[in-house]
Every structure is written in C-alpha cells, then in structure tokens.
Design goal:
single chain; 466 residues; alpha/beta; Rossmann fold; Elongation Factor Tu (Ef-tu), domain 3; 6-stranded mixed beta sheet; 15 helices; 18 strands; 32% helix; ATP-binding; PhoH-like ATPase
C-alpha cells in the first residue's frame, strides 16, 4: 500500500473528469500525493478516441502518466515520484491502484457505476490511513455530494480558476474619490496634444492604477480620462474623446452612457490591438464593436475586412456534413449580427432605400462569418476580428484564437460571464475571465465592463425584476 506519511502531506484521489479537464493537474498538487483508482484509468481509456477537446486531453493525460510511470524504478505500489517530471513544482508521488479493493461504502451504492467504485476506493484509503487527510477531487457536483453523504472529504479542482470571486474581476473603470485633486494635484503638470488634455499627477492612488484604465469623476467639473502612463507614484491621465456627441458619431452610433463612451475610445484606438467587452444582454457590446469595425474598415481603411466568429454551443463540435458553405451553416448562429446590421443600416437617413440597399451589400461583402473549427493554423493580417459569446471558450481555446492575429489585426472579445452554456466552465475558469485578468495593464489592450442595458425600458425592467 502507499507509504505512510506525515499529517501535513495529503492524499488526493482524482476523478477522471479532473484529468479530462486539465491533463497537467498531475503536476499541480505541490508536496501532496496523488492516487489514481483503476476506474479512473478505465474511464480515461474510454474517452481517448475522437477529435474533441476531451479526447485530446485524455490522450495527453495518458502520455503524462506513461512518462511518470515508465521512469519509476521503485515498486509501483510505493508511488512514482513527480518531482523530476514537474521540475520540482510537484514533490509528491503518483500512486496507482494495484489490487482489488472492497469497502463498506459499496454496500450502500450500486457497484456497477464507475463513480461508486471510485468512492469505494476513497473510503477504503480513509480506513487504511486514518492519520492522513484523504480527499476526493472531482469536477462533478453530484459526485462530491455523494462523497459527503459517506463522510468523505471532497473538493472541486480549483487550479484552473483565474479568480475565486468574479466580483474581483478587473472592470477597466475606476471612480476617482472627491478629494482626488487635493491629494494628487500637488506639483501637477498639464498640457494639450492632438485635442486631448494630459495631466501628470502624483499620489497614493497612482500605484494601483493600470495603463489604459479609465477614470472618471462626476460633479461640477466632470472628468472622463484614461491612464496612459504609470511610473511609481506618478500617473499620466489623458481626457477621452466624447463619442456621445453627434459630431463624433461612429457609423451613425453615439455613446448612450459613460461606459459605452469608454468602449468606443478603445475600439477606435488603432494603438490598442486587443479589446475585451463584458456586459449583460443589451449593453451594446456587438453594436458598438460592429460600428467601430465598419468605420475603420470602410471609411478609414485601417483594416481590410471584419471577421466575425461565434462560439456555437456545443463548442467546437462539427458544423455538419449537409450541403452548404461554412457561412451558410453559421447563419443560424448569427442572428445577433443580422439584428445589429439592421440597426447600423438605418442610421443613414439621407441615403434613401436604394442607397441603404447598396450600403448593405457593401457591408456584407466586408464581413466574413467563420466557424471556430477552421481557425487552427490560420493567420489574419489587417483584419478586425470579433469573437462573440467568448465566455464559452476555455483558456486554451482563447489562446488558439488570439494567437491567430497577424500584423495590423485587432481582436475584440465580447461576452457575458453570467451566461456560460458549456459544462465544466464556470465564471472563474472561463477563457474570457482568463484573458481579462492576464491582459490588464498591457499598453496595447483595453477592457470595459458595460453596466447599463440600452435596449428598451421593457428589457431594462425585465433584467431587474425577473
């Protein structure tokens, strides 16, 4: 049986779904030991065929296991050391089930179910090693409930979570305190450049600010600005362009609130290559992005075309073998695009019906709809790439998509982390949360959490009361 160990060294029994979710989990338990029941290995074997993300992860987990076990010179029952393979990130051991196990828990549970066999193993280990914490790790909520019913300690796998509490997620917007100028205005420098006012302020708040974060102060002398530079306790603030005024309208669209104005500032800035917009339904994410994309593609010609991709749930599954092009098959998922194009096409009142029809044809020729399935290996040059419903992507899929960007391409990710449709993804582990957290403070990225819905009084009221 597994070696005896001190109380500080825990024994984690892994459910299959943890390995299928993150094959590198084998190296994520630091100094603690990992135990794999035979049922987990069996399930891993059942999931290895196919081209899905789960199948790929199953094969990768098997490869890791092979590497660890094949280099083990000791008796396998004592466990294989993880330190060498993990470059000392994990200093525990990997222990495999080497003999049949029967436990009292099996009397309560039907033996045929794989989950119950794993629970039986955990229960047996708990009896064998009473002086040690034996913990089941599973992504399956029902499995964890069953474990607790049997008096077994069970935990979710948290290592993939970017944030424990999504309330702490960076919003991209900060309200300045009323005494900001008193505490930060001493020795302030200010200047004008390209129609923007710049303020160089020094004070305690500057430490916590991030480059491209928006700051505002309402009241008698309102300030809407963006942090352009930070050096120690000194920050440079630049006033933002006012897109709520009709003279600055973007494809006929004006900002209806403060956050939309900030969003248009990052969407229209050619120096910002990566933009993330979070917000509930109706906050204007897609409309603002398309308006900015069309203006920069058709008017200022910064980008050659707009590419729109949307996560079709189930994510990454095949779009089918029936006749039809990639664009035709993606059409049912693109209702949001159609709705927003209708709004944008009505903004030009003077064009008349013929003019609008011509514009519509021109717009459609510049917007390409792509499926995520065909993104691997591509490089987009001078494109305006929109990834809609990005909350349903895993961090790995998000990386695959963003690394498609070639020179001159701008990537915009839109989503609402409260609407995740994919199993095993939560608000804390979504790829959208991941990129927002990792890109904050980078000089060429911008992020805004849009707060207010702008659809209609009915939609606003429904969002509040239902």
């Amino acid at each position: 049986m597994a070696r005896k160990s001190g109380k500080s060294n825990k024994l984690f029994v892994l459910d299959t779904n943890v390995l299928l979710h993150d094959p590198t989990c084998l190296y994520r338990f630091q100094e603690h030991d990992i135990y794999l029941p035979m049922a987990t290995l069996e399930e891993l074997d059942h999931n290895k065929k196919g081209m899905s993300e789960v199948s790929r992860n199953a094969r990768q987990a098997s490869r890791f296991l092979d590497e660890i076990v094949s280099t083990c010179e000791l008796d396998i029952a004592d466990g294989a050391p993880l330190a060498e393979r993990s470059h000392n990130a994990a200093t525990g051991r990997l222990i495999l089930q080497t003999h049949a196990i029967t436990s009292d828990a099996m009397a309560v549970l039907p033996h045929s179910k794989v989950d119950n066999q794993i629970l039986g193993v955990v229960n047996y280990l708990k009896g064998q090693q009473p002086d040690r914490q034996v913990i089941l790790v599973s992504k399956d909520i029902n499995m964890r409930i069953k474990a607790r019913a049997l008096g077994i300690q069970a935990e979710d796998y948290f290592n993939d979570k970017v944030l424990e509490d999504t309330d702490l997620l960076y919003t991209g917007v900060r309200e300045l305190p009323p005494d900001f100028w008193e505490t930060h205005g001493k020795g302030m420098e200010s200047w004008q450049k390209d129609g923007r006012s710049y303020y160089k302020v020094t004070g305690p708040l500057s430490n916590s600010m991030l480059v491209n974060e928006f700051v505002y102060q309402e009241g008698d002398r309102p300030l809407h600005a963006m942090v352009t530079d930070i050096a120690g306790k000194t920050a440079v603030l630049a006033t933002v362009k006012d897109y709520s005024h009709h003279k600055n309208a973007v494809w006929g669209i004006t900002a209806r609130n403060r956050e939309q104005n900030f969003a248009l500032n990052v969407l229209m800035d050619p120096q910002i290559d990566f933009v993330t917009l979070l917000g509930q339904a109706g906050t204007g994410k897609t409309l603002l992005t398309l308006a900015a994309g069309l203006t920069q593609t058709l008017e200022s010609k910064i980008y050659s075309e707009i590419i729109m991709t949307r996560v079709t749930v189930p994510v990454g599954e095949d779009i089918g073998f029936l006749p039809g092009t990639e664009e035709e098959k993606m059409t049912p998922w693109m209702g949001a695009l159609e709705d927003n194009l209708d709004v944008l096409n009505k903004t030009d009142d003077e064009a008349g019906e013929w003019g609008r029809a011509a514009t519509q044809d021109l717009i459609r020729s510049r917007i390409k709809v792509k499926s995520l399935n065909f993104m691997r290996g591509r490089t987009f040059i001078n494109k305006f790439l929109i990834i809609d419903e990005a909350q349903n992507l895993t961090p790995k899929q998000m990386k695959t998509l963003i690394t498609r960007a070639g020179p001159g391409t701008k990537v915009v990710c839109l989503g609402n982390i409260a609407q995740i449709d994919t199993p095993y993804l939560t608000e804390g582990s979504s790829g959208l949360t991941y990129v927002v957290d990792r890109f904050k403070g980078w000089p060429h990225s911008g992020h805004i959490t849009l707060a207010r819905g702008e659809r209609s009084r009915l939609a606003d009221h429904a969002a509040g009361v239902l």
